[in-house]
């Protein structure tokens, strides 16, 4: 079976382009017009490929790399083999990410799955929907009445865009997603299987549980990315809001009335209960649980698998269950470890006697 390559590198990226992206001069003697044929890890990169290194764990791999050109921090620059052109810079990984986007622009967001443009045969677009020029709708997708979709947006196969939903320009809506009661900004990426705008979990409890109608919306601002199989419930009476530039991983649950600020990072497995607010630049590690009606302050970071059950001040670093400032958490863990060790030693002494 022939080898399949899903992402063919774009032509025309040169060694001079790499140096320019890093904001440094190309080393003396390097050919500025030498082109890059792709990117690869240090251990497998060849003479036509770009690599990067910014982690001490890969110091040995750096000494043996055959990469044609390598982005590297000052700390490791002396380890680059003579045959490899070293681009010494302060943030190799970030620069590498930008160059990788130039090499593989088709990997930046999901594209059409059927290979065409415009409305594919088998797409179902209501006559009252409004699509700008340049929208692509793959087979099996459904676009409801009154929906509006901006130019450059791709709607994947079997996606459902509900009545009145508005989606901005240059978005990618993945296969099998559903969007209802939602307003989506520009350059938003929604990966396959995500569910946005369905009922929040609202019931007036009693002998029988009375459903509370969820009459809010989901507002997704510009440049947000939402991972596969993530769910974002619409508001009960207020809107659920996802702020500009926020990045959400796969398998995240965001409940009704949650407000997430700008440029937050929410990692896989997180659950955020209703009416909680995350201010700008908050980071939640994997499997964090947040109870409802809390506020997590600007720039705070919560360690993975923690449970947050009270407000978090701005700029904090918390962890544990229940979550607390990391220093207190580490002291707690250290104390428990010492107690366990002492208890084990006492038990051993008792057995000897």
Automatic annotation (TrEMBL):
<keyword id="KW-0677">Repeat</keyword>
<dbReference type="InterPro" id="IPR011004">
    <property type="entry name" value="Trimer_LpxA-like_sf"/>
</dbReference>
<dbReference type="InterPro" id="IPR007691">
    <property type="entry name" value="LpxD"/>
</dbReference>
<feature type="domain" description="UDP-3-O-[3-hydroxymyristoyl] glucosamine N-acyltransferase non-repeat region">
    <location>
        <begin position="35"/>
        <end position="100"/>
    </location>
</feature>
<keyword id="KW-0443">Lipid metabolism</keyword>
<dbReference type="InterPro" id="IPR001451">
    <property type="entry name" value="Hexapep"/>
</dbReference>
<comment type="subunit">
    <text>Homotrimer.</text>
</comment>
<dbReference type="InterPro" id="IPR020573">
    <property type="entry name" value="UDP_GlcNAc_AcTrfase_non-rep"/>
</dbReference>
<keyword id="KW-0012">Acyltransferase</keyword>
<keyword id="KW-0808">Transferase</keyword>
<keyword id="KW-0444">Lipid biosynthesis</keyword>
<protein>
    <recommendedName>
        <fullName>UDP-3-O-acylglucosamine N-acyltransferase</fullName>
        <ecNumber>2.3.1.191</ecNumber>
    </recommendedName>
</protein>
<comment type="pathway">
    <text>Bacterial outer membrane biogenesis; LPS lipid A biosynthesis.</text>
</comment>
<keyword id="KW-0441">Lipid A biosynthesis</keyword>
<dbReference type="Pfam" id="PF00132">
    <property type="entry name" value="Hexapep"/>
</dbReference>
<dbReference type="GO" id="GO:0103118">
    <property type="term" value="F:UDP-3-O-[(3R)-3-hydroxyacyl]-glucosamine N-acyltransferase activity"/>
</dbReference>
<dbReference type="InterPro" id="IPR018357">
    <property type="entry name" value="Hexapep_transf_CS"/>
</dbReference>
<dbReference type="Pfam" id="PF04613">
    <property type="entry name" value="LpxD"/>
</dbReference>
<comment type="similarity">
    <text>Belongs to the transferase hexapeptide repeat family. LpxD subfamily.</text>
</comment>
<comment type="function">
    <text>Catalyzes the N-acylation of UDP-3-O-acylglucosamine using 3-hydroxyacyl-ACP as the acyl donor. Is involved in the biosynthesis of lipid A, a phosphorylated glycolipid that anchors the lipopolysaccharide to the outer membrane of the cell.</text>
</comment>
<feature type="active site" description="Proton acceptor">
    <location>
        <position position="256"/>
    </location>
</feature>
